[in-house]
Amino acid sequence: MNSDQAKRRVVEQFGRNAEKYVTSHTHAKGADLDLIVEWTAPKESWIVLDIATGGGHTAKALAPYVNQVFATDLTKEMLSHTSLHLKAYPQIFYVVADAESLPFLDGTFDMVTCRIAAHHFPHPEQFAKEASRVLKSNGLFFFIDNVSPNDEELALFINELERLRDPSHVSCLSTEQWRELFYKEGIKEVRSMERKKRYPFQEWVKRTTKTLKEEEIVTKYMLDANEKIKQYYRLNMTEDQIESIEVDDWIALFRKE
C-alpha cells in the first residue's frame, strides 16, 4: 500500500466514523489528558498545534490554558464534527492538514502535540521532521501513541490485529524507533512513561469495522493467538466473549533544541 492509498483509507475511515471518535471513551477520557497539562505547564501566551486532532480531546484539554490552539486533521468530516462539539472554545481553530506536510511556517508554535494518531502515518520520519520544523526553538512536543514491543512476534501480531480491525492502520513503532526519529530532528526527550492501556474489546472492534463478518475475523485472530501472545496482551474473557485486551502505550514529552 502506497502513501496516497494509506491516506485515502484514513480519510474514508475517519470520515465514516467521525462521531464515534468524538464520543469514544478511549479517546475522550484518560489520565494522559491531565498529564499533558501537568507535564507541559502551558502558558497563556502560547500558540499550540494539535496534529491529527481527531475528536479534539487534546485541543480541548489545552484550550483553557493557552492563547490559541490550531487543531489539524486530514479528514474534513472529522474536523466538522469536532468543531460542533467544541463550540464553547473559540480559541480553537480548525485546519485540514496532512501531518506529513503541515501548512505552517517554520518556528510557529510554542508547543506541538499528537495523541493516539501517529500509527496512521505512512511516513513517520516525515511527520517527525514537520513537527520539529513548525516548533519554536526550545518549544515542547508532547507525543502519545500505541507502540509495539521489541519482541518481533508480539509486534507483528499487534500490527496485524490493528490492520484487521482498522484498514487505515499503518504501523505501531517501538519507543526506540520513535526516539531515534525525533532525536534526528533535534527533539530531545524530557520525560516519558510506558504503560498498558486497556481496551474494551467489543467497543474497540465495532468502532472501525463495517460488518459483523469483519468483527468475527478480528475476534478469531485474537482467539487463535498462542498463549504467549494472549498473556502479553492480557486477554480477558467472560464465558465465550473477549471482554478486553491491553496494549502498549507511550507518553513522552520532548523539547526542541
Could you describe the 3D structure shown?
This protein is an alpha/beta fold and 257 residues long. The chain has a single domain (3-199, 248-256), classed as Rossmann fold. Helix content is 42%, strand content 26%. The protein has twelve helices and eight strands. It has helices at residues 3-16, 18-23, 25-28, 31-40, 57-62, 76-85, 124-133, 152-165, 175-184, 201-206, 212-223, 227-232, and strands at 47-51, 68-73, 92-96, 109-115, 135-146, 187-200, 236-238, 241-256. The longest helix is centred in the first third of the chain and has 14 residues, at 3-16. It is globular and about 55 Å long. It starts with a helix and ends with a strand. The model has no long low-confidence stretch (mean pLDDT 91).
Return the CATH topology. Answer: Rossmann fold
**Which CATH class applies here?**
Alpha Beta
Shape: globular
Helix content: 40-55%
Number of strands: 8
- In the CATH hierarchy, the architecture is 3-Layer(aba) Sandwich
The description of the largest β-sheet is: 8 strands, mixed
Q: Secondary-structure element order, as H and E?
A: HHHHEHEHEEHEHHEHHHEE
Oligomer: single chain
Based on helices, strands and strand pairing, what is the structural class?
alpha/beta
pLDDT below 50 for ≥5 consecutive residues: which ranges?
none
Strand content: 25-35%
Annotation field: number of helices: 12
Radius of gyration: 18 Å
Q: Residue-averaged pLDDT, rounded?
A: 91
Cα(first) to Cα(last) distance is: 35 Å
State the fourth-level CATH superfamily.
Answer: Vaccinia Virus protein VP39
Q: Structurally, how many domains make up the residues? A: 1
